[in-house]
Design a protein that fits this description.
Blueprint: E1 3-4, E2 7-8, E3 16-20, E4 33-40, E5 43-48, E6 52-57, H1 58-64, E7 77-80, E8 84-93, E9 103-106, E10 109-112, H2 115-122, E11 130-140, H3 143-149, E12 153-157, H4 160-164, H5 171-178
Parallel strand pairs: 7-11
Antiparallel strand pairs: 1-2, 3-4, 3-12, 4-5, 5-11, 6-7, 8-10, 8-11, 9-10
């Protein structure tokens, strides 16, 4: 197995959910599900998919950027993508993937943050499935691995139905259930086997 500074390339968590354990004390991540878009020896980055800004819609972003938008823009929520780069826009989306700066996560999911994609979404011409987020989550090299060793996170391959179709308030429990775990029985006290 090839390694990059202690990380097995095959063990990268790119394309996985990072599911916060119930006893997570960092309020930025309490009961969150993060979709990891990159994970390598330099660190990891992703977007939290189950937190929404209660008083902001995509319409506010489109107006701020002077983009023409459809009448539906007010119904498009803006997610709190994480505590890093909180003033930057990150878009998780399905196909098509021909946008500038499009980072493929899986064969059917990507992350972008360019104006061409945002303009298309504002006009109703973008991908059918997308999440607009302000900010992202980030970890320095080795930081996520240490947090995992400290039992702060569960992981599983991402599920696009949870990302795009599950109600926001149900995404954490749905991701936990993917592991065959009843969320109500998940211990608040981690341990090592």
């Amino acid at each position: 197995m090839q390694q990059q500074s202690g990380i097995d390339i095959q063990d990268s968590l790119k394309g996985h959910f990072l599911i916060a354990m119930p006893d997570m004390v960092d309020f930025n991540f309490y009961q969150t599900v993060t979709c990891l878009s990159e994970h390598n020896a330099s660190g990891a980055v992703g977007v939290v998919i189950n937190r929404v800004l209660p008083s902001v819609s995509a319409k506010a972003i489109f107006k701020e950027l002077n983009l023409a938008y459809t009448i539906d823009a007010d119904a498009v929520p803006v997610h709190i993508g994480g505590p890093v780069h909180e003033n930057e826009i990150f878009i998780l989306h399905g196909p098509p993937f021909a946008w500038q700066g499009c980072l493929k996560i899986t064969p059917t999911l990507a992350m972008s943050n360019t104006i061409d994609l945002l303009t298309a979404i504002a006009r109703g011409e973008g991908p059918a499935a997308f999440i607009i987020a302000l900010g992202c989550a980030g970890w320095a090299g080795g930081q996520l691995e240490q947090e995992m060793a400290d039992n702060a996170w569960l992981t599983c391959p991402l599920n696009e139905k949870i990302v795009f179709e599950s109600p926001v308030e149900d995404r954490w429990a749905a991701a936990v259930r993917m592991l065959g775990i009843d969320p109500g029985l998940l211990s608040h006290t981690p341990g090592h086997a």
